[in-house]
# Entry
Amino acid sequence: MNKKLLVVSVFIITGLCGVIIYLMLNGYGFIGSGTDTNSLMNGNAPGKMVSYDPGDAFITNLKDSRKLLRTSIIIEMEDKAHIKYMTKSNYKIRDIIIGVLSGLSEDSFNSGNTMDTLKEDIKRAISEGLKIYGIVDIYFNEFVYQ
# Structure
């Protein structure tokens, strides 16, 4: 009985050592090594971001103004887990973005941090509206105000 227990124990310890070595060699590291465990659990390699394009440019009037804003946006996500849901909900995402953009006034363009504030507003509105919490950043491919 002791001999069988010893053989099984050696087999288990050897297997665990093999798994640990494999994980270390493939860059997965351990707690405190700087590896993003959320990315690993979602099947992404560490540091891999995914972009989502909500489609055509957004064109909207500014609040209480005859001026127009035209912009196209790319949403950077921390992983690809939400992309399928975002694709299905693209009409909701576009509506949320148009709502944020149409709430801008001409005065909001006089401050120096309009773009940064707008990025945060869009990120927050999409996160709250769709209950998606993985948006890293918002990028503007074009931004025309006239």
